[in-house]
Amino acid sequence: MNIVVNGMNVELEREMSISELLRIRCMDRPLVAVEHNLRWITRDEWPNVVLKDSDRLEIVRILAGG
Amino acid sequence: MLSTDDVLTIGGRALTSRLFIGTGKFSSYDLIPEVIRESRTQVVTVALRRLDFENPGENMATRVPEGCILLTNTSGARNAAEAVRIAQLARAAGCGDWIKIEIVTDQRYLLPDNQETIEATRILAAQGFVVLPYISPDLMVSRRLVDAGAAAVMPLGAPIGTNRGIKTRELVRILVEEIELPVIVDAGIGHPSEAAEAMEMGCSAVLVNTAIATARDPARMARAFGLAVEAGRLAFRSVPGPVLCKASASSPLTGFLRD
């Protein structure tokens, strides 16, 4: 199935949760946030949200800024 | 030691340092811990961006000492709705409730959109954020920000990144006089003397980024800013003497050796 992550098409071989996706991609770390279909979700919810075809994710991180 | 009898309280947090530091533009993240240490700051700004799915990059979290308050800016936001979205994601990322609203559509001078900033402040304050709006200095806008629930107002001294000093001093002075909230000069301060000037005027704090990040020795400049902010604050609390047009002798005018 295909999902859109930060505006890019990403193909997933199988169904997985948000936390699983982030773990596989080494993005599971502090100061990262996820918006799932335009709804921000807490880190506690990551394991419970199973991604579906055409889902849209925004994965953001904190970085240096003024 | 920093003075503990002169605390700045924002959002329920008691701050003994009145210097906020921005973390952008440093040539390496390695410099940031020393800059924070030398400046003795307690509030550090950060930004929020998309994570590169192919290359997650370095983790900023490891560079900021525990105990520092993260103040996430909403840079990149072009209107209130985008600023609110960024703030909510920042909170979800674990940055806490402090948010610097920065809404910019003007790309030449990066001047903030005061009207959208008021709207974003109203929404985010109602959601429990500690809202510090970056604004063009304006009294009526600041009064509306007070009503909207802002925790402070952050007027610019000069456009972001210019190191030009407090070109807006008369307008900032009016805000200090008229607004009950802390006034924090953000943007434009390029030298420690200008940070001291802001504090002497009665500003509650200053936010400095470019001046430190682009100095040849950022850690030493951070220390200089920390000292300047403290000196300026002490001067303000000391209540400077009057400014006169004509001379007023400092030594006695009697007992001269002549006659």
Describe the structure.
The complex is a heterodimer of chains A (66) and B (259). Chain A is mainly β and 66 residues long. Chain A has a single domain (2-61), classed as Beta-grasp domain (Ubiquitin-like (UB roll)), CATH 3.10.20.30. Helices cover 11% and strands 38% of the residues of chain A. Chain A has 1 helix and 5 strands; from the N terminus they run ββαβββ. A 5-stranded mixed sheet of chain A has the order 2-1-5-3-4, with no helix packed on it. In chain A, a hairpin with a 2-residue loop joins strand 1 (2-5) and strand 2. Chain A is globular and about 40 Å long. Chain A starts with a strand and ends with a strand. The mean pLDDT of chain A is 91. With 259 residues, chain B is of the alpha/beta class. Chain B has a single domain, classed as Aldolase class I (TIM Barrel), CATH 3.20.20.70. Chain B has helices at residues 32-39, 80-92, 114-126, 139-148, 169-178, 192-200, 210-213, 218-238, and strands at 8-10, 13-15, 19-22, 43-50, 69-73, 98-101, 130-135, 154-155, 184-186, 205-208. In chain B, strands 8-7-6-5-4-3-10-9 form an 8-stranded parallel sheet. In chain B, strands 1-2 form a two-stranded antiparallel ribbon. In chain B, helix 2 runs parallel beside helix 3 and helix 3 (114-126) runs parallel beside helix 4 (139-148). The longest helix of chain B has 21 residues, at 218-238. The radius of gyration of chain B is 20 Å and the shape is globular. The mean pLDDT of chain B is 94. The interface between A and B is medium-sized, with 28 and 38 residues.
